[in-house]
Amino acid sequence: MEIDITRENEEVIVRLSGRLDTPGAQEIAPKINDLLEETGKTVILDCSDMSYISSSGLRIFLTLRKSAADKGGRIIVRNICNDVRNVFMMTGFLNLFEIE
User: Fold this and answer.
1) Residues near 36 by beta carbon (within 8 Å), at least 6 away in sequence
2) Are the C-beta atoms of residues 43 and 64 closer than 8 Å to each other?
3) Which of 49, 60, 63, 66 suits 92 as a labelling partner, its CA being 20 to 30 A distant?
4) Of 93, 88, 1, which Cα lies nearest the Cα of 51?
5) pTM of the predicted model, to two decimals?
6) How far apart are CA 4 and CA 18, in angstroms?
7) For residue 28, what are the domain limits?
8) How many domains does the chain have?
9) CA angle (91 as vertex; 75, 10 as ends), nearest 5
10) What is the pLDDT of residue 37?
11) 44 near 11, Cβ under 8 Å?
């Protein structure tokens, strides 16, 4: 799992690549924890290159969403593949996030 974080004006763009499974979630957890400080802004999760998400990955998304809600920010999830979209649909995440 790879993560690339860039900041552009009032937006934070997080590009996720690979499989966001348990090992992947543990690998990116330190960067996600640092990102929680900035969730008062708009955080865009670009999932163009993310091929899979497990419950550990979903937990990361929920943590970001809760932090953004507490700070008045917003989370936008972009470019999810069909497999990830199906997981979002089955778990109700399509209703929790702004999907583009």
Assistant:
1) 63, 64, 67
2) yes
3) 49
4) 1
5) 0.93
6) 12
7) 2-99
8) 1
9) 5
10) 86
11) yes
Handedness of CA 83, 86, 90, 91 (dihedral sign): positive
For the chain, list residues with pLDDT below 50. none
CATH of residue 95: 3.30.750.24
Residue 38: what pLDDT?
84
Per residue in 26-53, pLDDT (tens digit) is 999 999 998 888 888 999 999 999 999 9
Distance separating alpha carbons of residues 50 and 68, to the nearest angstrom: 22
Nearest to 24 by CA among 4, 53, 63, 61: 53
Tokens at residue 83, please?
């497999």
